[in-house]
Structure formats: structure tokens, C-alpha cells
Amino acid sequence: MGAVRVAIRVRPGASRTRVGGRYGDRLVVAVTARAVEGAATAAALAALSAALGVRPRFVELVSGATSRDKVVEVADDAVDEAVRARLEALLDA
User: Fold this and answer.
1) Where are the domains of the chain?
2) CATH class for the domain made up of 4-92
3) Phi, psi of 18 (to 5 degrees)
4) φ and ψ at 24, to 5 degrees?
5) Model's pTM, two decimal places?
6) ∠ at Cα 71 (55, 61), nearest 5°?
């Protein structure tokens, strides 16, 4: 199927972790972790992998390590029709 790149907008310091909705053309990932020493980025990657139903090792940061706007890639080993459907549902939430 091929790897999938997803543009995300991280919202650190949220009251609860939530994945869904849009910020422009980006998927919103709200995390409780603060934006200190990469904690929010790590939490966002973990939340996205859980929401997509893939192992965390299949979700990798491509760009935006110190920005709220990031690009992540879901490895082609993990991408199937179910993952694509979950991603579309999250973007529409």
C-alpha cells in the first residue's frame, strides 16, 4: 500500500489526550504533556499510533521536532485499508 505521511498540529498541555479534527489541513493531536524536551512530541506520536491501531514503532516523526506543526509517517508495513479508514474518520471528527 505504501507509507502514509500525515500533517499534524500538536496541542500540548490539553486537559486530556485526543486525536481528531482539523486545524487547516492538519490533523489535531491534543496531549496532556507539556512542550518540554520533546515530551509533547513523544506523546503525540503515541496517541496517533493508538488512534490508528498500529504499533508505535510504525509511526515516525519526519519534520517539525520543535514546532507544533509536524509531519509524521506511518510505515508501509502498517498501512492497510483499515488504517486509511481510521485516518479519514479522525480528519472528519
Assistant:
1) 4-92
2) alpha beta
3) -150, 140
4) 70, -120
5) 0.93
6) 45
How far apart, in whole angstroms, are the C-alpha atoms of residue 28 and residue 52?
A: 14
Question: What distance in Å separates the CA atoms of residue 37 and residue 26, rounded to the nearest whole number?
Answer: 23
Per-residue pLDDT of the chain (93 residues; tens, 9 = 90+): 689 999 999 999 999 999 999 999 999 999 999 999 999 999 999 999 999 999 999 999 999 999 999 999 999 888 899 999 999 999 887
Question: Would you list the DSSP string of the chain?
Answer: ---EEEEEEEETT-SS-EEEEEETTEEEEE-SS-SSTTHHHHHHHHHHHHHHT--GGGEEEEE-TTSSEEEEEE-TTT--HHHHHHHHHHHH-
